[in-house]
Amino acid sequence: MPRSGWSDRFARIGEIDVQDPQTWESRLFLTIDLDWAIDPAIELCLDMLDDAGVAATLFVTHDTPLLARIRSNRRLELGVHPNFNRLLDGEAGSGSAEAVMHELQRLVPEARAVRSHSMTQSSRLLDLFVRCGMTHDCNHFVPVQSGITLKPYAHWKRALTRVPYCWEDDIDLEYGAGPSPLDIATAGTGLRVFDFHPIHLALNTVSIEHYETTRSAHRTGEALREAAAPGPGGVRDRFAALLQGRMSS
Ligand SMILES: [Zn+2]
Question: What is the pTM of this model?
Answer without folding.
Answer: 0.96
